[in-house]
Amino acid sequence: MAISPSKFDYPKLKAQLVTALQQGRAKVSVVINQIMVRTYWEVGRHIVEYEQKGEDRAIYGDRLLERLSKDLSLEFGKGFSRSNLFQIRAFYLKFQKIQTLSGQLSWSHYLELSKADSELEISFYSRQSEKENWSVRELKRQMKSMLFHRLALSKDKNSILDLAERGAEIQSAKDLLRDPYVFEFLGIPSDKHYTEGELEQSLIENLQHFLLELGKGFAFIGRQYKITLGGRHFFVDLVFYHRILKCFVLFDLKRGEIDHQDIGQMNLYLNYFRKEENVTGDNEPVGIILGAHQDQILVEYATENITNQLLVSKYQVYLPDKKELAKELERILIKQ
Length: 336
What we know:
The structure is a single chain. It contains 14 helices and six strands. With 336 residues, it is α/β, with parallel strands linked by helices. It folds into three domains: 10-112, no CATH class; 116-171 and 321-336, no CATH class; 181-319, Trna Endonuclease, Chain: A, domain 1, CATH 3.40.1350.10. The protein has a six-stranded mixed beta sheet with strand order 1-6-5-4-3-2, sandwiched between helices. β5, α13 and β6 (309-316) form a beta-alpha-beta unit. α1 packs across α4 (82-94), α6 (119-132) packs across α9 and α10 (196-205) packs across α11 (207-214). The longest helix is centred in the first third of the chain and has 43 residues, at 10-52. It is globular, with a radius of gyration of 26 Å.
């Protein structure tokens, strides 16, 4: 007896099969990646151990990788060019303990991590890639924008070492702050004049990149968030909710230098959100004022005795100077 179409939901069956196949392929991909990473680690280990015996210098000199490339390519096909073997060798030198390898990170992740200058950087970016599930493209962007250095420069030596070991952990409002914030993804030349509204619009148009710069846990609520008090209207530039800290995070963007009036206005916004917008379970809101410049003494006096969580930082529309940040970080590590 034929089954009536009404009694057999074919689209549902198809959807179930597609889901099962996609999940299966994803698991296979993870396993293949883990095997690839560990295999390349073994290849790198054998090359380095051979070199350490001095035989490559005595017999083949600098042509060792070139000869291996030709022989392995004949045996296994593509994937063993001289440059690839050089990368595999560099990978092993940066990750000589196989226990440090993560099953979550791909070979492409490790290629990028191998480019880092120090063990502290490698450890931090490895942990952070796992925590925030960064794609290779996102990892490249964070390394290029010197995220580790920007976070580390506001800490003491022990905190820097902890940051490298554990990655960035969000436990308080201060953990949200980056100094400076880097908006190079907007493509705005450093010498171009732009308004605060244009900056805000550009950030919204590049929201995915902006969220990556802000860090884990931010959910976008709205822009130009309207507040009405005593018949007067105020507008918060950008409003987010942080799902880890369970609080609203308000951003005020300033094209030039941050003024004491900007701090007073943000304090007003925070008082309003605390009394009018917070619901049961919400923690105290956080306010972050971002300006192209700031007078540290003025900010210190303007924020003194303010009980709200009000933070001030700078932003820039170009990538930071790597040498300057590295030099400053080294100074902190040596000093303490």
